[in-house]
C-alpha cells in the first residue's frame, strides 16, 4: 500500500507484512465482533486511489478497512430486501476504474459497481435474452484497458468488454480465438497490450485491430510458450517484461523483443529457487522496483 505495507489474503484471514520490521499482523473474523473482517477466506484486495483498502471475501461480502490499528472494518453484504446492496457475498475480484468507481466481481451474483460517495451498489447480471449483457454471473477478474473499456473475465463463459458509454457488454470466447472460456486473469502490460490467462488454455494476447486472440501454449522443452497452460496471474517488472504465474509450472518471464519465455521452476536442490511451482500471485515491490513478491 501507500505506506509500504504488503497485504496478503489467505484462507485463514488477512495479513499485513511490514518490511521495516519484517513482521506480520493478522486480521481475522471474530464472530463476537461485527466490525471485524467479514470472513477469513480472502479472495481479493485493493487499495483505491483515495488510500482506502477493500477486501473481498468468500462468504463475507466486501470489507472496507476502517482502522489499521484497531483491526476494524465496514462490511457490505447482500441484503434480501435491499435492491442497492451487494448482489452476492462471495467476492472474487475488485478493481477501480479511471473515474474512481469500485467494481466487484462475485461468484454467483455477477458484477457490482459501487460509487464510494453514495455507498450504493449497481448490478450487472447475465440475461439469456440479451446478448449485450454479461455472459456469466461467475466473475473471476477485471482489467481496464487503454481505451477505457473494462474487461471482465468469467469462470466458464469467456470474456466481456464493457463500454462505459453505452453500458453494454461485448462477449468474447473460443469462437473469437480465445484458447479457453475459463478466464483466470487479465493484464494490460507496459506496452498497452492486453493479455488473458486461462485455465488449461494457456496465455492469449488480444489483437485490437482484428478483435481476435493470439494464443501462447506450453510446449515441452520449448521457449515459445509459458511453462504451463494453467495460468493463474500476470504482472510486469520494471524492465517491461511480462511475468506469468502458473499452477504446476512455476513462473515464466516473457521478453517481447525476442518473443521468448524464460522459465523458473522449484528445484529442491536449490534453496534460492522459487519455493513452489504453484504460483497464485506476482506483485511488484512499490518501494523497490528491482524486486517482486511471489506467492
Strand residue percentage: 35-45%
Number of strand elements:
25
Structural class: mainly beta
User: Unreliable segments (pLDDT under 50, ≥5 consecutive)?
Assistant: none
- In terms of quaternary structure, the protein is single chain
Shape: globular
Number of helices: 0
Helix content bin: under 10%
Largest sheet: 4 strands, antiparallel
Q: What is the C-alpha radius of gyration, as a whole number of Å?
A: 19 Å
Order of helices and strands: EEEEEEEEEEEEEEEEEEEEEEEEE
Spatial strand order of the main sheet: 4-5-6-7
> What is the typical, i.e. mean, pLDDT?
95
- Please report the distance between the alpha carbons of the first and last residues: 17 Å
Amino acid at each position: 500500500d501507500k505506506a509500504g505495507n504488503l497485504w496478503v489474503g489467505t484462507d485463514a484471514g488477512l495479513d499485513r507484512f511490514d518490511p521495516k520490521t519484517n513482521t506480520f499482523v493478522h486480521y481475522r473474523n471474530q464472530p463476537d465482533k461485527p466490525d471485524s473482517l467479514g470472513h477469513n477466506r480472502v479472495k481479493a484486495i485493493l487499495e483505491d486511489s483515495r488510500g482506502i483498502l477493500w477486501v473481498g471475501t468468500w462468504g463475507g461480502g466486501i470489507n472496507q478497512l476502517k482502522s489499521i490499528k484497531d483491526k476494524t472494518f465496514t462490511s457490505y453484504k447482500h441484503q434480501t430486501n435491499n435492491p442497492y446492496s451487494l448482489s452476492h457475498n462471495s467476492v472474487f475480484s475488485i478493481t477501480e476504474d479511471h473515474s474512481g468507481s469500485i467494481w466487484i466481481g462475485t461468484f454467483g451474483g455477477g458484477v457490482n459497481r459501487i460509487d464510494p460517495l453514495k455507498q450504493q451498489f449497481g448490478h450487472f447480471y447475465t440475461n439469456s435474452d440479451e446478448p449485450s449483457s454479461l455472459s456469466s454471473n461467475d466473475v473471476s477478474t477485471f482489467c481496464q484497458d487503454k481505451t477505457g473499456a473494462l474487461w471482465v473475465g468469467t469462470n466458464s463463459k469467456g470474456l466481456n468488454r464493457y463500454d462505459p458509454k453505452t453500458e453494454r457488454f461485448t462477449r468474447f470466447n473460443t469462437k473469437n480465438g480465445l484458447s479457453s472460456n475459463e478466464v483466470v486473469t487479465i493484464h494490460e502490460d507496459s506496452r498497452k497490450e492486453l493479455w488473458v490467462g486461462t485455465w488449461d488454455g494457456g496465455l492469449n494476447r488480444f489483437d485490437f485491430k482484428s478483435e481476435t486472440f493470439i494464443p501462447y501454449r506450453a510446449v515441452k522443452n520449448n521457449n515459445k510458450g509459458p511453462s504451463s497452460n494453467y495460468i493463474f496471474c500476470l504482472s510486469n517488472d520494471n524492465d517491461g517484461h511480462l511475468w506469468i504465474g502458473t499452477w504446476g509450472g512455476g513462473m515464466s518471464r516473457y521478453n517481447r523483443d525476442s518473443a521468448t519465455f524464460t522459465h523458473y521452476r522449484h528445484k529442491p536442490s536449490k534453496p534460492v529457487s522459487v519455493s513452489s511451482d504453484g504460483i497464485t500471485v506476482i506483485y511488484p515491490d512499490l518501494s523497490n522496483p528491482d524486486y517482486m513478491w511471489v506467492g
